Amino acid sequence: MEPPGNDVVAFESAEKIILRWDSTASEDAREKMIFAGDRHEIDRYLSAVDEIQRSMEFATLSDDQNKANSAIQIAMARLEDEFRNILIAHTTPMEAESLTDSSPLPDEDYDDDSPLTKDLEHQESNSSCSYRSTNSIREIDLMPSDAIYDLRCIAERMILAGYLRECIQVYGSVRKSAVDSSFRRLGIEKLSIGDIQRLEWETIETKIRRWIRAAKVCVRILFASEKKLCEQIFEGLGNAIDDACFMETIKGPAIQLFNFAEAISISRRSPEKLFKILDLHDALSDLLVDIEIVFDSKSSEWIRVQAVEILSRLAEAARGILSEFENAVLREPSKVPVPGGTIHPLTRYVMNYISLISDYKQTMSELIVSKPSTGSRYSSDPNTPDMDFTELESQTPLALHLIWIAVILQFNLEGKSKCYRDTSLAHLFMMNNVHYIVQKIKGSPELREMVRDDCLRKLTGKFRQAATNYQRSTWVNVLHCLRDEGLHVKGSFSSGVSKSALRERFKTFNAMFEEVHRTQSTWLIPDTQLREELRISVSEKLIPAYRSFLGRFRSHIESGRHPENYIKYSGEDIETAVLDFFEGYQVSQHIRRRSQ
């Protein structure tokens, strides 16, 4: 059956319009774009396409069908070009408005002043809720409404004519380039997992800081805005076509974005990586709900799954690093004594490390759910300290791990203290180091809260005991010189003092005290208050004993020859000499003496 005569006229008129804009046959058509012209011409062309598509339904003769097919192919080729041109023409304003800095980003940071980044900062600072909220998603209009209308008009006709695949490919190609450009502005590099794992950790740390900030922008603004644009153009034109275009656009960039976090999650573990891994974990955890919202379709399920899996691996990496850190502290092998018995570098490193862990208390408490796997009062391993966890049942698993680290640190330090030949110096070393542990715990409210007062009292008792042991080891023999026993001649207690024994006693005291002064002035107590307290404690025992001894026996020496060879120091001299102790350097080769 032939179509009505007026339909034939309509078809021929529409065909004429289509052929006039055939870019393969006309130079004028190649140089001009329909949608860059006036609205009347745009509407005429779209109506012509509609007429060709309508006439195809009624064409029964092969000639008519061929003519219609030929016309529709020409029209679709033209619309594809127009579609691409509109997309390209309206990509530049998006970059100008959202990522204004067109210069390459420095390694230290990216454009913090871009409106896109400011938009993110504004919503974070003005929102009373956490990141885990739909309020954190900020969609930007990537194109003006008239361009969106034109794109939708073209897409509708291409899809109806069976050119869905071409439409999606053109859209995805152009928009992916726009996303790639934004990635470059945000400092997100195209690196494979292998590339990332070969980088030095210091370089990766910088990239992690940048990634965290950029990932928030990408998920909450960039990807969310791309999704909105797809919906504006394609929603309702077919089964999940808007989602297909969205995935065509962001699949590559999403892989690029999450590859970085995945590479970190499976990288070789080492203690210095823990805190950046926790930063990465927190950032991804904050983004998880936003990821669920932006990537809510079946076709984007793999992104949701990947994000959850990366989060799980980051958590496992953090747990593994903590466990390996504990073992490293226990087994740290250095046996070279630190000069002067000062604080060992291991002590500083470990305590600074666990102080940082306490700063991540909330995250670490969520990740650490079991107590340490080593350490028991029933342990038969001589290389592992005993620890009864039943006494700490009310503590959180994280607190138990931090307490365990303090215990194994002390255990290791006790082994290192045995490397000192001088027992007094070994006790001073333990006093310094356990005192440092106590002070670091007291100085961190979070750490002190987890360790609690009972453990802190035990630690305080240990460094005070070490101080007592030092005093006994150093001063018992010195004070022994100042006793009366052995100086009196038998049977004559009132005046029978052996001058030769007394002279020997003074000489022995002088020699011992001078040796203590010579050595212990080079020993170091870095904490000013602790140093002063120990000096006072020494003085309270030594000075009164010396003055008393001097008062009782001075006359016996001064009545003989060369008394200055035996009574070399006054009480004030001894008191002044004690002030030289624990300064960490040789104050003087000789004890300063006041005029006698």
Automatic annotation (TrEMBL):
Transmembrane feature ranges: none
Gene3D superfamilies: Exocyst complex component Exo70
Domain Exocyst complex subunit Exo70 C-terminal: start-end pairs: 210-579
Region of interest: Disordered: 95-130
Gene Ontology terms: cellular component: exocyst
Biological process per Gene Ontology, one example term: exocytosis
An example Gene Ontology molecular-function term: phosphatidylinositol-4,5-bisphosphate binding
Ranges of biased composition (kind: Basic and acidic residues): 115-124
Transport found in the keyword field: yes
Signal sequence interval, chain numbering: none
UniProt keyword list: Exocytosis, Protein transport, Transport
Biological role: Component of the exocyst complex.
Family assignment from sequence similarity: Belongs to the EXO70 family.
Protein name, UniProt field: Exocyst subunit Exo70 family protein
Record organism: Anisodus acutangulus
